[in-house]
Write a structure and sequence with these properties.
alpha+beta; 3 helices; Thrombin, subunit H; 21% helix; single chain
Amino acid sequence: MNLSRGILVALVSSATALTCLLWKGRSIAKILSTFDSAGSKEAGSSGIARVNPGCPADFSNACDAVNAVVHVRARSREKNDRNFGGSGRESLSSASGVILTDDGFIVTNDHVIKDAVAIRVTLPNKHSYVAELAGADPLHDLAVLKIREAKLPFVLLGNSDEARVGDWVLAIGYPWNLDETITAGIVSAKTHLSVQHPVSYHLTNLIQTDAAINLGNSGGALVNNAGELIGINTLLVSPNKVYTGYGYAIPVNDIKESIEHIIGSWKESRQVR
């Protein structure tokens, strides 16, 4: 009798376990069925977040923008009242710039070339040019340079207003006087908070990113995963001037008008001559 009861209990337990496994299998299958062939998970009534199917497996297309990012070196002379005539000590800065047109207009930061007596631009192919300052907009920490060359690679302007927190971005530039360098991250925030720039600029509208930005990245490109320019890298926030996860770029939509005005004015002045 006890043996029969034991066999019955075992059969019931086995049936229960099998039922649970089948139910779990249905649940797992149901969950897996919410993933499409691209690996994206559809949002359901439970509010589960959707995995963005546009997340790139690689950035090879966006990396083409590196061909339009240049190395900017500016030689400045410190102001010294005791050396009337501006014969103070010279300093050399190393930063980045972005080619905007095939005829040699390049955007960088105003703080990169401020008080410069000579500016030189080197392309990724190592061709080097003396650059002229076409104009500047210090309010936006913006400067436009001009080199005498044609048929240059250039970057397309994107729409920085469409950039969303969480979107993938690339920061391209020449940090630490290295060759062209690309780092990847996301848009961490779009801030309207005032950030006091260490070189006295007061910027109020910035794209925050965790893509590594270091000394020398100033004036370089922040591009989306289509390789379109959405920002000009300008600032890192760090207690020791080394990347700690907080970099900032000026949204390209904020400086489009200034860029067009500077280029237009430069061309007009050359026609008058």
